[in-house]
Amino acid sequence: MAEIRIENLRKEFGAFSAVEDSSFVVRDGEFLALLGPSGCGKTTTLRMIAGLELPTSGKIFLGGEDVTFNRARERDIAFVFQLFALYPHMNVRKNIAFPLLAQGVAKAEIRARVEETAKLLQIDHILDRSVSGLAGGDRQRVALGRAIVRRPKCFLMDEPLGTLDAEFRDLMVRELRELHNRIRATTVYVTHDQLEAMAMADKIAVMNHGIIEQFGTPQEIYNRPATMYVADFIGSPPMNFLRFTAGLQKGARSVVVDGVDISVPEIHLDLAESEFALGVRPEDISFSDVSPLRGAVFGSEYHGTNQIVAVEMGKGLVKARVPADQNFRIGETVGLELNYDRLSLFDCTSGRAVPSSRYAEHHHG
Amino acid sequence: MSSVNTAHSVVEPSRTSKRIAATIVIAYAVITMIPLVWIVLTSFKSPPDSISYPPKIVFQPTLEGYCNLFTTRTRQTPEYITSLGAPTSTCDEITRSRNMVIAGPSNYWPRFQNSLVIAFGSTFLAVSLGTLAAYGFSRFKVPLAEDLLFFILSTRMMPPIAVAIPIYLMYRQLGLSDTALGMILLYTAVNVSLAVWLLKGFIDEIPREYEEAAMIDGYTRMQAFFKVVLPQATTGIAATAIFCLIFAWNEYAFAVLLTSGAAQTAPPFIPTIIGEGGQDWPAVAAGTTIFVVPILVFTILLRKQLLRGITFGAVRK
């Protein structure tokens, strides 16, 4: 296993730049999720690490070795494709043994390692079956087996759960994470599904338009989104933005939104008058009759343990996650109480978070 | 009486429509097979039966046509024939009954062998070159790929025989006239364009991920091509091979023009049988019957691949 280091990686396809100046490190044994919408450059980044695409500029290090321009077969990595790419003319055993054959491993050892891998993934009973008759989950396990069997420096996975149905996906998410806990292989996992990323990854890199918007643990990404894009992309429903125009003073502990004074974590920077947004997660909103921040109930979505209530604030809807037993009439005026120490502030011009006491100790450049 | 019958499926064809479809298919099959059956029947008729009018459906089968096909004969006096002693084979007997003796083997078998060598040789070459070219066009950024592909296709836009004279002159100059190599090269050139286009379609359908997976698994692109792409392209290769083989096997015009002796193929040879001592239709029919067999066998052997080839896009997920 090895550390993956990406330095100023760029990839251009003609005039279109798919990946712009990405740098990050995946530590030995870490599970990184590259998260973003389709076309954000996450798959391109993964394919460059694999050696299936060559970067326009930048460097890639695997275990300290510069492999930027090495061929895929020289990198000692394993790749799990979205459609698994199981060789249809071989049975399960041959599929898993295929990478070992390339390395010239002795027959007896191939047999032993294939069977050991199959046991680990609980597919030892289907080793002699044809891959074309397998169910989605077993295909997935065979694809993983082919990756694990060679004990590579790292695993690269390109939306491997994308084609499975929802119920099965949950099971595979758990299986994948358990597998990772057992073999501790450095893994880069590409997905557009924030729940998958949150559930499995040690670190998440949120990408958009070829740029890494934020790199951090799932908790950091969720609690301290570095940009409005990340705040909006992560969470369901996403973070609410209360927009206002003002100047911000260093040391201030409140902002004025629509004439209402709202407490915020201490601001660490002086900023000239401009448009800002107060970011608040739906679960950090509660209803209070005394709160001066008021709006009209627009509708609610019942989720069993809780409900999402949409409130019209004059400039748009704000969604709050509140206990399911509270009843609201549509059109009813309610007061909103914000959990002030969990608020984020964003500069709407740059889209970036404004440094505050909430962000200070976890600040990532 | 006004109740609506909903017991039928909307998707499944009804029994009536299935019956109509079956009738049409069988009728079509019968119509296309009549000439073939007629040739086979004729090959077992005696020469008088073969030209009798009205045509005979029921007749005494004989191997005379096949005997005449494979032998050359000379006419002899009955006295000479009786002096020969007992006939050594069925053919001997049949020939003697017509007051003739077998003089030697005919040219049919060598011509048939030429056909085998030239047709299979050119098919192998065209499919091999076509597969490699198709893979290249399918996977790599070939400069001017569109134009090159159009150029390759354009060689099919005129009937090949339009270039017969230039090729005849070139071949004479190069010493390729009446050689198996010359014919193989010629048929390869004609077929390779078809092979490239057909195979490119098939290879385009094979996801690149397979090769990428193989290359990550530690193989070179060449190894990935042979171990992963080729096995998946077998249906396409089989379908293409059949088309190429049928063309090369049946080709008549170039064969007449460019071969006359050593490298002559069966198609130009078969019509010449008729001229040897009267209209010997059974021998011609026998030659045609045997000529059909290789294609028939090849098609039957590859029928699975051909069928899968036809439903290619539908089966793949």
From TrEMBL, chain A:
Membrane topology category? Peripheral membrane protein
Question: A Gene Ontology biological process annotation?
Answer: carbohydrate transport
In its UniProt record, a GO molecular function of this protein is: ATP hydrolysis activity
Look up the domain of life of the source: Bacteria
The alphabetized UniProt keywords are: ATP-binding, Cell membrane, Membrane, Nucleotide-binding, Sugar transport, Translocase, Transport
Asked whether the UniProt record includes ATP-binding among its keywords, one would answer yes
Q: What is a single Pfam family found in this protein's UniProt entry?
A: ABC_tran
Family membership, please give it. Answer: Belongs to the ABC transporter superfamily.
Q: What is this protein called?
A: Multiple sugar transport system ATP-binding protein
Q: What is the protein's species of origin?
A: Phyllobacterium trifolii
TrEMBL record, chain B:
Keyword Membrane in the entry? The reply is yes
Q: Which InterPro entries match?
A: BP-dep_ABC_trans_perm (IPR050901), MetI-like (IPR000515), MetI-like_sf (IPR035906)
Q: Which GO terms describe its biological process?
A: transmembrane transport
Q: Name one GO cellular component term.
A: plasma membrane
Q: Write out the transmembrane intervals.
A: 20-41, 116-137, 149-171, 183-203, 224-249, 281-302
Q: How does it sit in the membrane?
A: Multi-pass membrane protein
Pfam family membership, one: BPD_transp_1
Task: Give compartment(s).
Answer: Cell membrane
* Primary residence: membrane
Query: Where does the ABC transmembrane type-1 domain lie?
Result: 112-302
Which UniProt keywords are given for this protein, alphabetically ordered? Cell membrane, Membrane, Sugar transport, Transmembrane, Transmembrane helix, Transport
Q: Which family does it belong to?
A: Belongs to the binding-protein-dependent transport system permease family.
**Name of the molecule in the record:** Multiple sugar transport system permease protein
Organism of derivation: Phyllobacterium trifolii
